[in-house]
Design a protein that fits this description.
single chain; mainly alpha
Length: 471
């Protein structure tokens, strides 16, 4: 045998070996329903526990400071949403890329995707933190803050901003832990941080008497704890392949590829931050012209937004659990398995959305009362906000779940289109036009109308994609 033939034989054997190793993965051989249970339940729990970070602060602050406290956390929330968006870009981009390359047997590139993901987490965290610290007041004014709420919002925002790098790593890093086949440890990372947040909220607010600053410091320390656990896993327990210092060297080309894959879900959350800013400013303007007043409207919107992080957490959790299964099998060209997993998750999202719809319609006052006391007008507007603005909440989950389904296959265009329809094409124009004719009611009606338009587009794209995968 010639030397050239011997080299070709060796390369072929190595390639076949890597492909056989990849084929042995449970992601390709296990039943889809069983995989979804093993991946979606921990991912769902992780996502729901993550929402506790926001809700716990709101509970403590609302019961301590009332309307002013609830409004203060609301006007800071767009920055938190932006961090969530960027963490999705890093987490989804790096974990999906890692699994697609693993499915192809290319562990060298997969390792660079992990290192690139961490580099992006640090850069994006700093990119949001620094402006927030240097221009806090102008940013909060842009976010819809009133002068009466500003002192509380300034205290909260400046401390929360210090945690943004930790927030990025603790949120995005768990995607890589989950993609490595350790969804339970990913849950532990978030759960430990969340429980720490609850305990420190109580200590700092009620024992030390730090007020809204105490809530912010509790979040900072809790995020640091979660970050430490993620970094420990990545350096001591990561098992898919060996990571080296070379894999973490800054590489703009890698960053660009990861950002492209994670851009869909990031765009979804990023535009939600823009929508929150539009809503806050509309509520500030048209709330002042109503019997409720600006601060009450901002406070109720803040409570409703934080409560709805549970609804979003369900969708995001199920989507996160779907992505390792979908991306790996897409890389292996097992398209029917990709379609089966997508159908099961989207169906579950719609069913849970209907249950959430019933809760919002039946118990809006009871939900609001958990976050502090208020007068009759306060609870009257709360009932209106939940029942009108979230009228089509059962369809809202299609935005994240279907967009996540496309991003897991690296199909960014479809993922972005879904978010564009609701968050850019319909929502902002409706928030500008409808209130001119219907006042505060016009602000509320813009929500379900935008949800309906998004659901039509998302459903159409999803059905078309299923037909292609199953053909």
């Amino acid at each position: 045998m010639s030397e050239e033939k011997e080299i070709k034989k060796t390369v072929t054997e190595k390639d076949n070996g890597s492909r056989k190793a990849a084929a042995a993965s449970p992601l390709e051989t296990e039943k889809i329903s069983r995989l979804l249970v093993s991946f979606c339940i921990p991912a769902l729990a992780s996502s729901l526990v993550t929402s506790v970070y926001n809700i716990v602060d709101q509970l403590f602050i609302g019961n301590l400071l009332g309307v002013a406290g609830n409004a203060a956390t609301n006007v800071v929330f767009p920055a938190v949403t932006l961090i969530s968006a960027l963490s999705l870009m890093c987490g989804v981009g790096s974990s999906n890329s890692m699994n697609i390359h693993r499915g192809r047997g290319d562990t060298k590139t997969a390792a660079k995707c992990v290192g690139g993901g961490f580099g992006m987490m640090i850069l994006f965290g700093l990119a949001v933190m620094i402006p927030m610290l240097l221009a806090t007041r102008p940013i909060l004014t842009l976010f819809g803050c009133t002068e009466s709420v500003m002192p509380y919002a300034l205290d909260y925002a400046r401390i929360i901003a210090l945690s943004f790098v930790f927030s990025m790593i603790s949120a995005a890093g768990t995607f890589l832990v989950r993609a490595d086949g350790a969804p339970k440890f990913a849950l532990y990372c978030i759960a430990v941080g969340s429980l720490s947040n609850v305990f420190m909220d109580w200590i700092f607010i009620y024992v030390f008497g730090w007020g809204i600053k105490g809530a912010a410091w509790a979040t900072f320390l809790a995020q640091a704890i979660s970050t430490a656990m993620v970094l420990w896993y990545m350096t001591k327990r990561f098992r898919s392949f060996t990571l080296s210092a070379e894999d973490f060297r800054p590489d703009l080309q890698i960053y660009g590829r990861l950002a492209a894959i994670g851009f869909g879900p990031a765009f979804n959350f990023g535009t939600q931050a823009i929508v929150q800013i539009f809503i806050n400013n509309a509520l500030r303007k048209y709330g002042a012209q109503s019997v409720y007043g600006s601060d009450v409207c901002l406070a109720i919107a803040g409570i409703a937004g934080k409560v709805n992080t549970f609804a979003s957490g369900v969708v995001v959790g199920l989507t996160n659990g779907l992505q390792p299964i979908s991306s790996y099998n897409f890389g292996r060209k097992n398209y029917k398995r990709v379609a089966e997993a997508g159908k099961k998750v989207v169906g579950l999202v719609l069913a849970i959305g209907f249950v959430i719809f019933l809760c919002y319609q039946i118990f809006p006052v009871q939900i609001t009362s958990l976050f502090g006391e208020g007068d009759e007008l306060y609870f009257e507007f709360a009932a209106k906000y939940f029942r009108i603005f979230y009228l089509l909440i059962m369809l809202f989950g299609l935005q994240s779940s279907v967009a996540g389904f496309f991003s897991s296959q690296g199909k960014v265009k479809q993922s972005i289109t879904i978010s564009l329809v609701r968050q850019v094409i319909f929502f902002p124009p409706l928030l500008i036009i409808l209130p001119k004719f219907f006042g505060l009611t016009g602000v509320l009606v813009s929500g379900p109308l935008s949800d309906l338009a998004m659901a039509v587009v998302a459903g159409t794209l999803f059905i078309r994609e299923l037909k292609k995968l199953e053909s």
